[in-house]
Specification:
Elements lengths: L1 H73 L6 H18 L6 H14 L8 H20 L6
Length: about 150
Amino acid sequence: MQQDHLERLFKTVQVLSIVAGVVVTVLSFNQARKQEADAQQSEAAKQQLEAAKPFLELRQRLYLDAVQQAAILANPEVHSKDELETARKRFRELYVAELSMVEGANVEAAMIQVAGEVDPEVLNLSSAQKAAYQLSHVLRNSLVTSWEVDEN
């Protein structure tokens, strides 16, 4: 009787060992799959960022240019008439077309606000300027979609 009891205990331990082994194997397999999926996702994000790099570099360059021109126009007392005229011209170019091609919605709103303060006339776009402005936005939307870039 004691031998039967030991035999049952031994068989139970064997079964539990097998079940534990299966559980550990499944958990290890799932963890490996999760790590592989995370690595693939990380690699995809790196590739997406690399693909969008030209757009992001252009955006950064034009953002810097816009803020430089706005700074000059916002501080007319410390700049010459020629500097102000050059900044006004460049600000208008950025506003109507170049920056509009890469700017996010929040930057667009800020540019409109700055334009209203430093050069209100730029807000009254001619039909040609409106067409250029809209073309820039269509191009931006295409680039944002193509390169899967955050619109802001």
